[in-house]
Amino acid sequence: MKKNQIAILLCLCTCGLGMGRTQQPNYPFNDSSLPMEKRIDNLLSLMTIDEKINCLSTNTGVPRLGVMNYGNSEGIHGVVQREARGKRQPITTTQFPQPPGMGESWDPELVREAAGVEGYEARFITQTPKYDRQILMLWGPQSDLGRDPRWGRSEEVYGEDPFLNGTMAVAFTKGLQGDDPKYWQAAALLKHFLANENENGRNSTSSNFDDRLFWEYYSVPFRMAFLDGGAKGVMASYNAWNGSAMAVNPILKSIVREQWGVDVISSDGGAVKLLVVPRHLFPDQKAAVVACLKAGINQFLDVYKDETKAALKDGEITEAEIDGLLRPKFRVTIRLGLLDPPEMVPYTKIKDSDGDSPEPWNTDKDRDVSKKFALESVVLLKNENSLLPLDKSKIKSIAVIGPLADSVHWDWYGGTPPYTVTPLQGIKDLVGPDVKVNYAAYDTHAGVSDAMKAASESDVAVVVIGNDPTCGPDEGHAWYGTPTEGGGITLPCTVPSDGREGRDRESINLAQEQIVKQVFIKNPKTIVLLISSFPFAINWSVANVPAILTMAHSSQDEGTALAKVLFGEYNPGGHLTKTWPKSVDQLPPSMDYNIRDGYTYMYFKGEPLFPFGYGLSYTTFKYTNLRTNSPELVKDGTVTVSVDVTNTGSRAGDAVVQMYVKHLGSKVERPREELEGFKRVNIQPNETKTVEIPLKAATLAWWDEKLPGFRVEAEPIRVMVGNSSSEIEASTTVRVE
C-alpha cells in the first residue's frame, strides 16, 4: 500500500469536526479561501452520479466526502421534532403561538427574536450527538396570505395584508439565519409558493388572478423575505396558478430563481405524484419528475431515485443539468459553515458538550421569549364598562368553564413543548388560595350542569372556547399518505367551523358560542376567552357579553398570558391581522382569487364584525401632530412620517401605530387604503412619544403589464395614522413626484 493511501485511510478514521462530520482528505471544496463557486465545482467533480441523485432529496450529505446533510424540519412557530413513526423519541422545543398570534403581536423584532430561538435550538439538536438529527433548514416562515377566513390553513399565516406578512417573514428569516455576516445559524425555507389558499380540491384546482395581483399582493411576502430578508429557500404549492401547476410553473425559474436568487426550490409532499393523478399533466411518474427538474425543483420531499436514474439513462435529463440543480443547494451548505473548520463558524459552539448544560428550551432565556410572545399576542376585542382587568382583591370566586379551559391545543405544525400552562392552571397560579376557582369542562351532560352551577355561584365567569386545530386523528403527520407509508387519511372535522390542512371551513359561526349564552344567563359578568386559529362570527357574544379576549393556539405559555391579562398584570396590546366578517354572506366565493371582488380590508364590502388592525387596551391613546419631513416624495426616495402618540389613560400600555395610504390621483384601480408601515410602542400614562415610520415611494408602485414592471405615479396620496384600518386618527397629504 502506498504512503498516500495509508494517509487517506488514517484520515477516514479520524473524527473531530464537531458537527457530525468525519475528517476527510483536504479537498479544495474544504478550502474556505476559495470562491464559493470554485468550491462547488470541485465538490461536484468528486461526486458519483448516485450521490448526486441522492442529493435531489431532503438529504444534502455526501458521507464518502465528509459533507454533512443540513437536513430539514417543520418550523413555522417552533422546531418540530416529534416521534418519527415510533422509531425515535420526540425532542421538546420552545413552542410559540400559531402564526396568526405571531402576527397579532405587530412586533417584527419579537418575531425575529423567536425565530432566533428556533434557529439556535435547531443548531443545538443538530450538533449534539445524542439527538442524531440534522435539521438546519427550517420550513418557515409561512409566507402565504389569509385572503379568505374559510381557508383551512389560514391558521398558519400571519394575516391578510401583504406588507404586514412580508415584514414578519423578513423578521422570521433574519432570526433563523442569525446576525453573523458570513455564516447562517439555520436556513429558511418559505412555504408555499404561490396562492394555495383553498384546501378543498387543492390537488387539482387553479388559483386564477392577473399579473397585477401577483406582483402587488400574492407574491409580496415571498419577495420581501427573499430580497430584504435574505431567504434562499422556498416550497412550491400544490395548486396551479392560471392553469399552470406550481411544481412545474415556469416562474420558478424565470422569477423565483433568476430574479429573486432563490437556491432551494422544493416540491411539497406528494405534489409530484399529483401531476399524474389527478392533474393528468404527464403520462407517468418519470415524466413528472423530469418536468419538475427542468422547471427548477431541486429538492423532492418524496423519493424519486429510480425515476431520475431512468430519465438519465434515457437522455431525458443530463448530468450537467443535475449539477446545475445541485449547485445552489451546496451554496446553502457553505453558508451554514458545513464545509469549513468549526473554529471559523461561530454557531458550531451551540451544542451540549458536557451533558450537564441545560437544553436551550429549558433556560430562562428561551422561556422569557415564549412568555413575552404569548402576552403580546393577546387581543382585547370588547371591554364594556371596563369589566377588565379583574381585581383579585375584590373577587372571592371565579368560574372557569369550557372545553378549552384545561388544555393547550397543538396543530399539525407544532412540536412538543417542554411544558404547557392551560388557562385554568394560569388562573389558579395567579389568584392563589384566596380566590375559589370553580372549574367545569362542559363536555358531558353532567358537565353542563356543573358549568351552570359554577357560573351561578361565582363572582365572575370565564368561558374558554374556540376551534380544534387537530380535528380528525393526526396519523403520521401526512394526510396525503397511506397507512403503510406512515400516513393515513384523517377523519372529517365534526364541527363545520373547524378547519386545517386538507379541509376548508364550512362555516365561520362558532358552535361553542351556545356555551356562552347559557353561562351568561347564570352570570352576566361573563368573559369570553376565544382561543382561535381563525376569525369567527361571534355576533351574539359581541352584542351581549361585556368582555372578550382572543389569542391563537399552541403557545406553551397560553394560560399564563391569559391570566396576566385578565387580572391586569399585563395590558393587552395585540391587534387583529384579518378582517372578521359578520357572516360568510359578506364574502365572495372561496375560489374567487380576485381580491378586488370583496376580500381583505382593502376591498371588503359592508361592515365587518371587527376590522383589520383592531384591538383595544386598558388605556387610551391620542394621535396628534402628524407630519412628514418633506411635503414631496420622489419616486426613488423615502419620507419620514412622524406622529405624537399620548397615553391618555391611567395605565402603561402598548400602542400599535398603523400607517395607511390612500391614492388620490391614480389612473388605475387601487385599494381604498393600504398598510404601509406600523410600530408597536410602549407608553406610560400621560406620556407622549413621537413615533417615526418611513414611507418609501417604491411601496406605492403598481405593476404595469405593458412595461412590464413597477410604476410609481406622480400623484397626491393621503397618509393616515390610527388604531386600526377603520379608526384613522390623523391624516396628511404628500405629493409623489
Give a concise summary.
The chain is α/β, with parallel strands linked by helices. It folds into 3 domains: 28-349, Alpha-Beta Barrel (TIM Barrel); 382-603, Rossmann fold (3-Layer(aba) Sandwich), CATH 3.40.50; 621-736, Sandwich (Immunoglobulin-like), CATH 2.60.40. Helices cover 27% and strands 19% of the residues.
Explain this structure.
The N and C termini lie far apart (77 Å). The chain has 3 domains: 28-349, TIM Barrel (Alpha-Beta Barrel); 382-603, Glycoside hydrolase family 3 C-terminal domain (Rossmann fold, 3-Layer(aba) Sandwich); 621-736, Immunoglobulins (Immunoglobulin-like, Sandwich), CATH 2.60.40. The protein is built from 20 helices and 24 strands. Mean pLDDT is 93; it is low at 1-18 and 474-490. It has a 6-stranded mixed sheet with strand order 9-14-13-12-10-11, sandwiched between helices. Strands 1-2-3-5-8 form a 5-stranded parallel sheet. It has 737 residues and is an alpha/beta fold. A hairpin with a 4-residue loop joins strand 21 (702-704) and strand 22.
Short descriptors:
single chain; 737 residues; alpha/beta; TIM Barrel; Rossmann fold; Immunoglobulin-like; 3 domains; six-stranded mixed β-sheet; five-stranded parallel β-sheet; 20 helices; 19% strand; globular
Strand and helix layout:
Blueprint lengths: L2 H10 L23 H11 L2 H6 L17 E3 L24 H6 L3 H20 L9 E6 L19 H16 L9 E7 L12 E2 L3 H8 L1 H8 L5 E4 L3 E2 L2 E2 L5 H7 L6 E3 L4 H4 L10 H11 L9 H9 L5 H17 L28 H13 L2 E5 L13 E5 L21 H9 L4 E5 L4 H12 L3 E7 L46 H10 L3 E6 L7 H6 L2 E5 L6 H9 L33 H4 L17 E8 L3 E2 L4 E10 L5 E11 L10 E10 L4 E9 L5 E3 L4 E3 L3 E10 L2 E10 L1
Parallel strand pairs: 1-2, 2-3, 3-5, 4-6, 5-8, 10-11, 10-12, 12-13, 13-14, 16-24
Antiparallel strand pairs: 6-7, 9-14, 15-17, 17-20, 18-19, 18-23, 21-22, 23-24
